[in-house]
Amino acid sequence: MKLVRTTAAAAILAALAASATATPALADVPSARALLQAGAAKGVADGYPAVVGLVRQGDDVQYVAAGVKDRDSRTPADPKAQFRIGSNTKAFTSTVLLQLEAEGRLSIDDTVAKWLPGAVNANGYDGSKITIRQLLNHTSGLPEYMNGILALNYAANQQPYQAFAPQALVDLALRQHAPTSAPGQTWGYANTNYVLAGMVITAVTGNSPAAEIQQRIITPLGLADTSFPTSDPTLHGNYLHGYEYPGGFAFVILDVTTSDVQVFGAAGAMVSTLDDLATFSRALLTGKLLPPAQQAELKTTVPAIAGIGTYGLGLIHKQLPCGQWVWSHGGDVLGYDSEWLSSEDGTKQIVRANTEYHLLGGTKGQQDTRQSNFDAFCAL
């Protein structure tokens, strides 16, 4: 039911109707959608080929779209289409490890060395002093492997089928520099942490992270448009094309829809949709995927850098300028930038995706569309 505030009497009736039902009033969903749609239009004006978004309150879902899903065909952007979700993959990976803990198969306070002997043992790093928990909340002190020549090669997208063994990515990270802090001492976001987390999943279960995520999350939740590609760098079915402005120069744009998935793996290889991300994040936050003890661990946060908020196990907790608190995460891989926001109880959600990313943050398009996320959520 939608309530229209046109007169004082209508306002009174709306208040009575809202108090008579346990379902949150839906009067603000249209205004939230309008704010998100305005942000999508601004994002396209900033240079994004497409911006799509979802506003959800209770069971009321509305969508926004601007731009085109394919610059060649000029087909309008479809908010039901798939896109690469990048680091939103991390919450899926952490959920599997927490489920394994609930089953008594590991503890997230186990050391990395217990499950991966010798995997972290170079340049002063010691896996016997780093826990799984520290991998998941990014306090391990491990460096980021996606730097230097690897980042340049990935951005060039000349070898989308190039194979990367997870241990090779870890070894590349360990060579970056010697430790600058002890494990557990400081927060530092690094995809290396989640590559190792995926390796732990394999060590414990004998299966790939992709197989465990499929069996434990995707299938039970009916996420029909979500997948974890492990070798195929192409997208299939209904999808948004991803693009890149090489070096940030807007006068050149490349289609990078087909890109290497092995370079991120359990840290960022998954594909999904607005609807499926909303369904997953709601299920996760409301305890449908984890028992109470692991749910508490999921939401136990550590301080992150300024502007981020605090970081849990694959989730961010932060307060918006309007005062509302949200759980969230973002994902950036070549060609795609996305983010979801949710209330604690999962009743209020915003999900948004853009179809250009060139490995550099802080662009005007990112700022404008992320601000529209906040504005839309605050209107709910």
Structure description:
There is one protein chain. The chain is an alpha+beta fold. The chain is built from twelve helices and 13 strands. The strands form three sheets. It has a nine-stranded antiparallel β-sheet with strand order 3-2-1-13-12-11-10-9-8, sandwiched between helices. Helix 2 runs antiparallel to helix 12, helix 3 runs antiparallel to helix 11 and helix 7 packs across helix 8. The longest helix is centred in the N-terminal third of the chain and has 17 residues. The radius of gyration is 21 Å and the shape is globular. The two termini are 15 Å apart. The N terminus is likely disordered.
Low-confidence blocks of residues: 1-27
Instruction: Name the helix and strand elements from N-terminus to C-terminus, one letter apiece.
Output: HHEEEEHHHHHHHEEEHHEEEEEEH
Classify the secondary structure makeup into a structural class: alpha+beta
How much of the polypeptide forms β-strand, as a percent range? 15-25%
Major sheet: arrangement of strands: 3-2-1-13-12-11-10-9-8
Shape: globular
User: Number of DSSP helices?
Assistant: 12
Helicity level, as a percent range? Answer: 25-40%
What's the gyration radius in Å? 21 Å
Main β sheet profile: 9 strands, antiparallel
What number is the mean pLDDT?
92
Termini separation comes to: 15 Å
β-strand number: 13
